[in-house]
Amino acid sequence: MAEINFERWQQVAHFHNPLKDGKLVEHSIEVRLDPLLEHQSVFPLMLKGKASALFPPTDREYLEECAERSKNQCFLCDGIWRKRTPRYSEKILPEGYLEKNDVALFPNLFPLAAYHAVVMVGNKHCRHLDDFPAGMIKDSFSVTLEFIRRCYESDPGVIHFTINANYLFPAGASVMHPHLQILGSPFPGTHERELLERSRDYFKKHGTSYWLDLSATEKLLRERWIGEIDGSQWFTAYSPLGPNEVIAIMPSVHHFLDWGEAEMNGVAEGLAKTLSAYAGLNLSTFNFSCLSAPLNSKSTEFCCILRLINRQNVVPHYRADDYYFQKLLGSELIVSPPEELASFIRQYF
Question: Which of 3.30.428.10, 3.40.30.10, 3.60.15.10, 1.10.3720.10 is the CATH number of 56-346?
Protein backbone atom coordinates (compact mmCIF):
# COMPACT_ATOMS: atom_id res chain seq x y z
CA MET A 1 0.00 0.00 0.00
CA ALA A 2 1.41 3.37 -1.03
CA GLU A 3 1.24 6.28 1.40
CA ILE A 4 -1.63 8.73 0.82
CA ASN A 5 -0.65 12.34 1.46
CA PHE A 6 -3.45 14.39 3.04
CA GLU A 7 -2.09 17.88 2.45
CA ARG A 8 -3.49 21.01 4.12
CA TRP A 9 -2.29 24.48 4.97
CA GLN A 10 -3.51 27.47 6.98
CA GLN A 11 -4.21 31.09 6.09
CA VAL A 12 -5.20 33.94 8.40
CA ALA A 13 -7.38 36.91 7.48
CA HIS A 14 -7.15 40.14 9.57
CA PHE A 15 -9.63 43.02 9.62
CA HIS A 16 -11.32 45.49 11.96
CA ASN A 17 -14.75 44.08 12.72
CA PRO A 18 -17.57 46.66 13.00
CA LEU A 19 -19.68 44.05 14.81
CA LYS A 20 -17.07 44.04 17.58
CA ASP A 21 -16.63 47.81 18.00
CA GLY A 22 -13.96 47.96 15.33
CA LYS A 23 -11.69 45.52 17.14
CA LEU A 24 -8.93 43.93 15.04
CA VAL A 25 -9.81 40.26 14.63
CA GLU A 26 -8.27 37.34 12.85
CA HIS A 27 -9.93 34.37 11.19
CA SER A 28 -8.19 31.10 10.39
CA ILE A 29 -8.87 29.44 7.05
CA GLU A 30 -7.87 25.85 6.35
CA VAL A 31 -7.24 24.75 2.76
CA ARG A 32 -7.29 21.05 1.93
CA LEU A 33 -5.92 19.43 -1.22
CA ASP A 34 -7.51 16.30 -2.63
CA PRO A 35 -4.83 13.56 -2.74
CA LEU A 36 -5.72 12.45 -6.28
CA LEU A 37 -7.34 15.32 -8.17
CA GLU A 38 -5.55 18.13 -6.27
CA HIS A 39 -8.67 20.29 -6.16
CA GLN A 40 -8.98 22.59 -3.16
CA SER A 41 -11.62 22.62 -0.43
CA VAL A 42 -11.62 25.68 1.81
CA PHE A 43 -12.76 25.55 5.44
CA PRO A 44 -13.21 28.96 7.12
CA LEU A 45 -13.05 27.89 10.77
CA MET A 46 -15.45 30.71 11.72
CA LEU A 47 -18.20 28.72 9.95
CA LYS A 48 -17.79 25.70 12.21
CA GLY A 49 -21.08 25.13 13.98
CA LYS A 50 -22.78 27.76 11.82
CA ALA A 51 -23.95 25.60 8.94
CA SER A 52 -27.46 27.02 9.21
CA ALA A 53 -26.14 30.38 7.99
CA LEU A 54 -25.48 28.83 4.58
CA PHE A 55 -27.90 25.90 4.82
CA PRO A 56 -31.14 26.99 6.52
CA PRO A 57 -33.00 23.99 7.97
CA THR A 58 -35.54 22.26 5.76
CA ASP A 59 -38.99 23.83 5.86
CA ARG A 60 -41.06 20.61 6.09
CA GLU A 61 -44.38 22.42 5.70
CA TYR A 62 -43.19 24.15 2.53
CA LEU A 63 -41.83 20.84 1.19
CA GLU A 64 -45.22 19.17 1.70
CA GLU A 65 -46.94 22.11 -0.02
CA CYS A 66 -44.62 21.77 -3.04
CA ALA A 67 -45.25 18.03 -3.17
CA GLU A 68 -49.00 18.43 -3.05
CA ARG A 69 -48.94 21.18 -5.68
CA SER A 70 -46.79 19.20 -8.13
CA LYS A 71 -48.28 15.73 -7.70
CA ASN A 72 -51.14 16.20 -10.16
CA GLN A 73 -48.68 17.14 -12.93
CA CYS A 74 -46.22 14.32 -12.18
CA PHE A 75 -45.85 11.83 -15.05
CA LEU A 76 -44.29 9.28 -12.66
CA CYS A 77 -47.24 9.08 -10.27
CA ASP A 78 -50.18 6.67 -10.37
CA GLY A 79 -48.82 4.62 -13.25
CA ILE A 80 -49.02 7.52 -15.70
CA TRP A 81 -45.46 6.78 -16.82
CA ARG A 82 -46.77 3.74 -18.73
CA LYS A 83 -48.62 6.04 -21.13
CA ARG A 84 -46.44 9.15 -21.18
CA THR A 85 -42.85 7.91 -21.38
CA PRO A 86 -40.89 6.79 -24.46
CA ARG A 87 -39.82 3.18 -25.06
CA TYR A 88 -36.54 1.63 -26.17
CA SER A 89 -36.21 -0.20 -29.48
CA GLU A 90 -36.31 -3.98 -29.67
CA LYS A 91 -32.58 -3.98 -30.37
CA ILE A 92 -31.86 -2.71 -26.86
CA LEU A 93 -34.89 -3.68 -24.79
CA PRO A 94 -37.54 -5.82 -26.52
CA GLU A 95 -39.86 -4.99 -23.62
CA GLY A 96 -39.39 -1.26 -24.27
CA TYR A 97 -38.67 -0.63 -20.59
CA LEU A 98 -37.51 -2.49 -17.47
CA GLU A 99 -39.61 -2.90 -14.35
CA LYS A 100 -39.03 -4.43 -10.93
CA ASN A 101 -41.54 -4.06 -8.12
CA ASP A 102 -42.27 -0.31 -7.91
CA VAL A 103 -39.19 0.70 -9.93
CA ALA A 104 -39.18 1.29 -13.70
CA LEU A 105 -36.56 2.31 -16.31
CA PHE A 106 -37.27 3.99 -19.65
CA PRO A 107 -35.57 6.50 -22.03
CA ASN A 108 -35.13 10.15 -21.14
CA LEU A 109 -37.23 12.24 -23.51
CA PHE A 110 -34.42 14.84 -23.66
CA PRO A 111 -31.21 12.76 -23.75
CA LEU A 112 -27.79 14.13 -22.91
CA ALA A 113 -25.93 11.07 -24.23
CA ALA A 114 -26.37 8.23 -26.71
CA TYR A 115 -28.00 6.23 -23.93
CA HIS A 116 -29.82 8.25 -21.28
CA ALA A 117 -32.33 6.39 -19.14
CA VAL A 118 -34.56 7.50 -16.28
CA VAL A 119 -35.32 5.19 -13.37
CA MET A 120 -38.49 5.88 -11.40
CA VAL A 121 -37.56 5.13 -7.79
CA GLY A 122 -40.76 3.98 -6.11
CA ASN A 123 -44.35 5.09 -6.46
CA LYS A 124 -44.24 7.77 -3.77
CA HIS A 125 -44.11 11.32 -5.14
CA CYS A 126 -42.03 12.88 -2.36
CA ARG A 127 -39.88 11.30 0.34
CA HIS A 128 -37.96 12.57 3.30
CA LEU A 129 -34.38 11.30 3.27
CA ASP A 130 -35.04 8.71 5.99
CA ASP A 131 -37.71 7.16 3.74
CA PHE A 132 -35.53 5.58 1.02
CA PRO A 133 -35.78 1.83 1.79
CA ALA A 134 -32.71 -0.22 0.93
CA GLY A 135 -34.84 -2.74 -0.99
CA MET A 136 -36.21 -0.03 -3.26
CA ILE A 137 -32.70 1.35 -3.87
CA LYS A 138 -31.45 -2.15 -4.66
CA ASP A 139 -34.26 -2.65 -7.19
CA SER A 140 -33.28 0.66 -8.80
CA PHE A 141 -29.67 -0.46 -9.19
CA SER A 142 -30.79 -3.89 -10.36
CA VAL A 143 -32.72 -2.54 -13.37
CA THR A 144 -29.94 -0.02 -14.00
CA LEU A 145 -27.25 -2.70 -14.19
CA GLU A 146 -29.46 -4.83 -16.44
CA PHE A 147 -29.92 -1.81 -18.72
CA ILE A 148 -26.17 -1.20 -18.86
CA ARG A 149 -25.55 -4.87 -19.70
CA ARG A 150 -28.16 -4.81 -22.49
CA CYS A 151 -26.75 -1.58 -23.96
CA TYR A 152 -23.22 -2.97 -24.01
CA GLU A 153 -24.36 -6.22 -25.63
CA SER A 154 -26.25 -4.24 -28.27
CA ASP A 155 -23.56 -1.60 -28.80
CA PRO A 156 -20.08 -2.65 -27.54
CA GLY A 157 -18.66 0.77 -28.40
CA VAL A 158 -20.59 2.36 -25.53
CA ILE A 159 -18.23 1.66 -22.65
CA HIS A 160 -18.65 4.66 -20.32
CA PHE A 161 -21.64 4.71 -17.98
CA THR A 162 -22.53 6.71 -14.89
CA ILE A 163 -25.48 6.33 -12.50
CA ASN A 164 -26.70 9.67 -11.16
CA ALA A 165 -29.38 11.33 -9.03
CA ASN A 166 -30.73 14.83 -8.44
CA TYR A 167 -33.24 14.86 -5.61
CA LEU A 168 -35.54 17.87 -5.30
CA PHE A 169 -35.30 21.20 -7.08
CA PRO A 170 -32.41 22.77 -5.09
CA ALA A 171 -30.36 19.78 -6.32
CA GLY A 172 -31.30 20.46 -9.93
CA ALA A 173 -34.25 18.08 -10.31
CA SER A 174 -37.00 19.22 -12.66
CA VAL A 175 -39.24 16.43 -11.32
CA MET A 176 -39.89 16.03 -7.59
CA HIS A 177 -40.62 12.30 -7.79
CA PRO A 178 -37.45 10.35 -6.84
CA HIS A 179 -35.58 9.09 -9.87
CA LEU A 180 -32.13 8.18 -11.20
CA GLN A 181 -30.51 9.09 -14.50
CA ILE A 182 -28.14 6.75 -16.32
CA LEU A 183 -25.77 8.15 -18.95
CA GLY A 184 -23.99 5.92 -21.45
CA SER A 185 -21.53 7.14 -24.08
CA PRO A 186 -18.51 6.02 -26.10
CA PHE A 187 -16.60 8.83 -24.38
CA PRO A 188 -16.01 9.62 -20.70
CA GLY A 189 -17.38 12.80 -19.16
CA THR A 190 -14.99 15.48 -17.89
CA HIS A 191 -14.81 14.37 -14.25
CA GLU A 192 -14.87 10.69 -15.18
CA ARG A 193 -11.96 11.17 -17.61
CA GLU A 194 -9.92 13.01 -14.98
CA LEU A 195 -10.55 10.31 -12.39
CA LEU A 196 -9.56 7.55 -14.80
CA GLU A 197 -6.41 9.37 -15.95
CA ARG A 198 -5.26 10.26 -12.43
CA SER A 199 -5.98 6.73 -11.21
CA ARG A 200 -3.96 5.33 -14.11
CA ASP A 201 -1.04 7.66 -13.34
CA TYR A 202 -1.11 6.63 -9.67
CA PHE A 203 -1.09 2.94 -10.63
CA LYS A 204 1.88 3.44 -12.95
CA LYS A 205 3.80 5.24 -10.21
CA HIS A 206 2.97 2.99 -7.24
CA GLY A 207 1.83 -0.31 -8.74
CA THR A 208 -1.34 -0.24 -6.63
CA SER A 209 -4.87 1.13 -6.94
CA TYR A 210 -5.32 4.61 -5.49
CA TRP A 211 -8.86 3.76 -4.39
CA LEU A 212 -7.84 0.62 -2.52
CA ASP A 213 -4.96 2.51 -0.90
CA LEU A 214 -7.26 5.40 0.01
CA SER A 215 -9.86 3.13 1.58
CA ALA A 216 -7.24 1.15 3.51
CA THR A 217 -5.67 4.39 4.77
CA GLU A 218 -9.02 5.86 5.84
CA LYS A 219 -9.88 2.64 7.65
CA LEU A 220 -6.53 2.73 9.45
CA LEU A 221 -6.83 6.40 10.44
CA ARG A 222 -10.52 6.10 11.50
CA GLU A 223 -10.96 9.90 11.30
CA ARG A 224 -13.28 9.86 8.28
CA TRP A 225 -14.07 6.14 8.16
CA ILE A 226 -17.77 5.23 8.39
CA GLY A 227 -17.98 1.49 7.84
CA GLU A 228 -18.29 -1.50 5.52
CA ILE A 229 -21.45 -3.15 4.20
CA ASP A 230 -21.18 -6.24 1.99
CA GLY A 231 -19.27 -5.20 -1.15
CA SER A 232 -18.88 -1.53 -0.22
CA GLN A 233 -16.69 0.67 2.00
CA TRP A 234 -17.82 4.13 3.18
CA PHE A 235 -15.98 7.23 4.40
CA THR A 236 -16.22 11.01 4.17
CA ALA A 237 -14.12 12.91 1.64
CA TYR A 238 -10.99 14.61 2.99
CA SER A 239 -11.32 17.42 0.45
CA PRO A 240 -14.97 17.25 -0.62
CA LEU A 241 -16.35 18.12 -4.03
CA GLY A 242 -19.59 19.29 -2.42
CA PRO A 243 -21.32 19.75 0.94
CA ASN A 244 -21.07 16.78 3.34
CA GLU A 245 -19.55 14.49 0.72
CA VAL A 246 -19.54 10.76 1.42
CA ILE A 247 -17.55 8.35 -0.76
CA ALA A 248 -18.26 4.66 -1.24
CA ILE A 249 -15.95 2.30 -3.08
CA MET A 250 -16.67 -1.21 -4.28
CA PRO A 251 -13.20 -2.73 -3.87
CA SER A 252 -13.84 -6.01 -5.69
CA VAL A 253 -15.33 -4.65 -8.92
CA HIS A 254 -13.81 -2.45 -11.58
CA HIS A 255 -16.84 -1.73 -13.74
CA PHE A 256 -20.61 -2.12 -13.65
CA LEU A 257 -20.65 -5.47 -15.47
CA ASP A 258 -18.73 -6.98 -12.53
CA TRP A 259 -21.39 -6.18 -9.94
CA GLY A 260 -23.08 -8.97 -8.03
CA GLU A 261 -25.46 -9.26 -5.10
CA ALA A 262 -22.83 -8.05 -2.62
CA GLU A 263 -22.28 -4.74 -4.42
CA MET A 264 -26.00 -4.10 -4.90
CA ASN A 265 -26.70 -4.92 -1.25
CA GLY A 266 -23.82 -2.80 -0.02
CA VAL A 267 -24.67 0.27 -2.07
CA ALA A 268 -28.39 0.02 -1.29
CA GLU A 269 -27.87 -0.38 2.46
CA GLY A 270 -25.13 2.24 2.59
CA LEU A 271 -27.16 4.80 0.66
CA ALA A 272 -30.25 4.19 2.80
CA LYS A 273 -28.23 4.65 6.00
CA THR A 274 -26.35 7.71 4.77
CA LEU A 275 -29.53 9.40 3.57
CA SER A 276 -31.06 8.69 6.98
CA ALA A 277 -28.03 10.38 8.52
CA TYR A 278 -28.56 13.36 6.21
CA ALA A 279 -32.15 13.46 7.47
CA GLY A 280 -30.72 13.44 11.00
CA LEU A 281 -28.87 16.63 10.02
CA ASN A 282 -32.22 18.07 8.84
CA LEU A 283 -31.14 17.94 5.18
CA SER A 284 -33.60 17.30 2.39
CA THR A 285 -31.75 17.14 -0.95
CA PHE A 286 -28.86 15.28 -2.54
CA ASN A 287 -26.87 14.49 -5.65
CA PHE A 288 -24.89 11.35 -6.25
CA SER A 289 -22.87 9.90 -9.09
CA CYS A 290 -21.66 6.32 -9.30
CA LEU A 291 -18.73 5.81 -11.67
CA SER A 292 -17.12 2.81 -13.30
CA ALA A 293 -14.06 1.90 -15.30
CA PRO A 294 -14.76 1.43 -19.04
CA LEU A 295 -16.86 -1.70 -19.54
CA ASN A 296 -14.19 -3.28 -21.77
CA SER A 297 -11.41 -2.63 -19.26
CA LYS A 298 -9.53 -5.47 -17.56
CA SER A 299 -7.15 -3.22 -15.63
CA THR A 300 -7.15 -2.94 -11.86
CA GLU A 301 -6.24 0.73 -11.35
CA PHE A 302 -9.88 1.77 -10.91
CA CYS A 303 -12.82 0.36 -8.99
CA CYS A 304 -16.43 1.49 -8.91
CA ILE A 305 -17.00 4.51 -6.68
CA LEU A 306 -19.99 6.54 -5.55
CA ARG A 307 -19.88 10.20 -4.49
CA LEU A 308 -22.83 11.58 -2.52
CA ILE A 309 -23.37 15.21 -1.49
CA ASN A 310 -26.26 17.28 -0.18
CA ARG A 311 -27.45 20.53 -1.71
CA GLN A 312 -29.45 23.47 -0.38
CA ASN A 313 -32.43 22.49 1.75
CA VAL A 314 -36.00 23.02 0.61
CA VAL A 315 -37.06 26.41 1.92
CA PRO A 316 -38.95 29.27 0.25
CA HIS A 317 -36.59 31.39 -1.85
CA TYR A 318 -33.63 29.08 -1.24
CA ARG A 319 -30.19 30.32 -2.20
CA ALA A 320 -27.89 28.45 -4.60
CA ASP A 321 -24.97 26.67 -2.95
CA ASP A 322 -22.97 26.45 -6.17
CA TYR A 323 -21.45 29.71 -7.34
CA TYR A 324 -18.22 31.04 -8.95
CA PHE A 325 -16.08 29.44 -6.25
CA GLN A 326 -17.22 25.97 -7.32
CA LYS A 327 -18.32 26.41 -10.93
CA LEU A 328 -15.49 28.59 -12.25
CA LEU A 329 -12.62 28.34 -9.75
CA GLY A 330 -12.97 24.61 -9.14
CA SER A 331 -12.81 24.83 -5.34
CA GLU A 332 -15.32 23.82 -2.69
CA LEU A 333 -16.40 25.29 0.63
CA ILE A 334 -16.32 23.10 3.74
CA VAL A 335 -19.01 24.00 6.28
CA SER A 336 -18.90 20.87 8.46
CA PRO A 337 -15.51 19.14 8.99
CA PRO A 338 -15.48 15.72 7.25
CA GLU A 339 -14.15 14.10 10.44
CA GLU A 340 -17.17 15.26 12.46
CA LEU A 341 -19.52 14.27 9.64
CA ALA A 342 -18.09 10.74 9.61
CA SER A 343 -18.52 10.47 13.37
CA PHE A 344 -22.18 11.43 13.01
CA ILE A 345 -22.95 9.10 10.10
CA ARG A 346 -21.25 6.13 11.82
CA GLN A 347 -24.19 6.05 14.25
CA TYR A 348 -26.46 5.07 11.34
CA PHE A 349 -24.29 2.18 10.11
Answer: 3.30.428.10
